């Protein structure tokens, strides 16, 4: 979704990084466009979960709250999977690397900033 908003040049309504000379009308237009782009890419069940939000930023924050929150057990599960990772000989090397990279990215999404320090050790 972030990629779509960046491509449409309206992600600024989420991160608030506007140039000083941008008018309030332009900011409002960007916010409306970003809001509609997000809403149009959500399923009905997700729209019901996010409720009524007044801006693209509020909608974005609510989606992050709903879908990026991770519990300690799930983080520990990912870390255990990371440290026990072994190459699957039935898969080619690209598939193994993709699987490992996805695991590292999932751990980064939990907020672990140190995972890059361990990656060379595990994959060596």
Automatic annotation (TrEMBL):
It holds the Pfam family Retrotran_gag_2. This is UBN2 domain-containing protein. The lineage of its organism: Eukaryota, Viridiplantae, Streptophyta, Embryophyta, Tracheophyta. It comes from Sesamum angustifolium.
């Amino acid at each position: 979704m972030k990629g779509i908003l960046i491509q449409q040049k309206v992600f600024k309504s989420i991160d608030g990084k506007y140039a000083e000379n941008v008018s309030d009308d332009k900011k409002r237009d960007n916010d409306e466009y970003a809001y509609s782009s997000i809403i149009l890419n959500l399923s009905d069940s997700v729209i019901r979960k996010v409720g009524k939000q007044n801006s693209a930023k509020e909608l974005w924050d609510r989606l992050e709250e709903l879908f990026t929150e991770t519990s300690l057990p799930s983080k520990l599960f990912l870390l255990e999977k990371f440290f026990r990772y072994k190459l699957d000989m039935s898969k080619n090397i690209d598939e193994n690397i993709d699987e490992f990279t996805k695991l590292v990215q999932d751990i980064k999404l939990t907020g672990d900033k140190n995972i890059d320090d361990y990656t060379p050790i595990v994959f060596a």
